[in-house]
Amino acid sequence: MVNRLIGLLLVGFLFCTQEAKANTYTDTEKKGREVLDLLRTGKFLEVEKMVDSMYVSYYRSYVLEKDWNELTGTYGKYVDAKPVNFEISEYYNFIGFKVKFEFLPYIFNISFNPTGKIIYISFMEAHKIYVAPDYCDVSKFLERKITVANGFFEMPGILTMPNDVAKAPLVIILVEAGPTDKDGSYEENKPYKDLAWGLASKGIAVFRYEKRSNNYGIYMAKDKAAYEKFTPREDLIDDLYRIIDSLKYLPDVDPSRMYVLGHGQGGMLAPLVAKERDEIKGIIMMGANAKRTQEMMIDQYKYLSTVTPNKKPEYDEQTINAIRSLKKDLNPLTEHHLMPYNVQATYWIWLNNYPHVDITKKLKKPVLLLHGNRDYQVNLENYEIWKKALAKNKNATLKQYPKLNHLFYPGETASTYSEYYMKSNIPDYVIKDLTTWISSH
Fold first, then answer.
1. Which residue, among 203, 160, 162, has the nearest Cα to 183 in the 3D structure?
2. Dmax over Cα atoms in the chain, in whole Å?
């Protein structure tokens, strides 16, 4: 009880300071634009005068002039700027602008100390870092770090909380299989961050977190070597339930409007969460397989063998392992190298017995299922199975997107894994569909 009271006092402090932090945005953006205006009008000495004395040697007027002239000489004249990042702490206020030049955009980052003096300036190539899409309005939300513990394991996460919302609906992102981080990162592409920032811009809070295996791989490898039981519950579900238990007490979260957004395997597991947890108002399934996970893998390897034939021997080996893992009498002590991706047999036995389609058919809670038609990992056949299975479930809404892949990124040609590394963002119409659905419930 004491620990819970301490936790509530902590989140209460975070909640009370939220409004004060939000008010800082206007001042920080104004100061950042003032510096940009001075740079584009050639008043570099005026910028130098705004720099804190401890850092002025890094930002002399002649250095700023050289950098600015090099930028405009290469990328053309300054056109305009839009804020794409904002952070605040007791030590600094940080804001990032996407600066549109005549030919290509750049990112201008600047930080001010509590007295308003500049302590950091940088220009970064927009195509080499994550840049928030235009539908994200960084003036509408703030982020705070929250770590949730489940026994020995700790899951560091980020709560993206909209400003000026007394009790916000909350979406918790349940991630894809494999070494997926809290942002769903593929280098500078971060689809889960797109979702968090896009939804928070519309008044919906989002929590994304690091799955257990990302931080505790060495401990999990030890358990694996000892053939300890390992299933999706230990991988994802148990930690998610502890997170639900923790976040529902936050003073700025509406506990009656908590949703789980699952992507890929997370989407396949979301119906079980809705069944077992009364707190969850509804679920969103993005790129979720209707077929067995291993059957989906076999389809995937067959497809990839045609678009990247040089890797066919590798895909054939994985296909054999996937077929083996589907056996009804699979021994839980089967050697790891005989299983897909060397994951314990207990994991596949659990999935073989998980009736995710039947559970979803019987759910009395709202279900939103989204599918990209260019998704080669979870192909269109899965969507058709879902469509048929959920035809009589009045709580289910299904939507497909002709041009989107498994990450819900747009494209025109046949999708491959390498496409995930091409600079992109989730389109605004997906965020709009999510926002509309959540708001309707």
1. 160
2. 76
Measure the N-to-C terminal CA separation of the chain; round to a whole number of Å: 33
Q: For 141-439, which CATH class?
A: alpha beta
Residue 276: its H or E element: helix 265-276
3-state helix, strand, coil in the chain (%, to 5): 45, 25, 30
C-alpha pair distances (Å), 244 with each of 153, 235, 247, 287, 295: 15, 16, 5, 23, 31
**Residue 248 amino acid letter:** K
Residues of the chain with CATH 3.40.50.1820: 141-439
What is the C-alpha separation between 421 and 433, in angstroms, rounded?
A: 25
Those residues whose C-beta lies under 8 Å from the C-beta of residue 270, and which sit 6 or more positions away, are: 174, 260, 261, 262, 283, 284, 285, 288
C-alpha dihedral over 350, 353, 355, 356, to 10 degrees?
20
- Give residue-wise pLDDT tens across range 243-286: 999 999 999 999 999 999 999 999 999 999 999 999 999 999 99
Ranges in the chain annotated CATH 3.10.450 = 22-128
Give residue for tokens 């004395």: 53
Q: Are 354 and 240 in contact (CB under 8 A)?
A: no
| Residue 260 and residue 284 in contact, taking contact as beta carbons nearer than 8 Å | yes
CATH of the domain spanning 22-128:
3.10.450
**Residues whose CB falls within 8 Å of the CB of residue 88, separated by 6 or more in sequence, listed in order:** 21, 24, 25, 28, 94, 142
Q: Tell me if the pTM is above 0.70.
A: yes
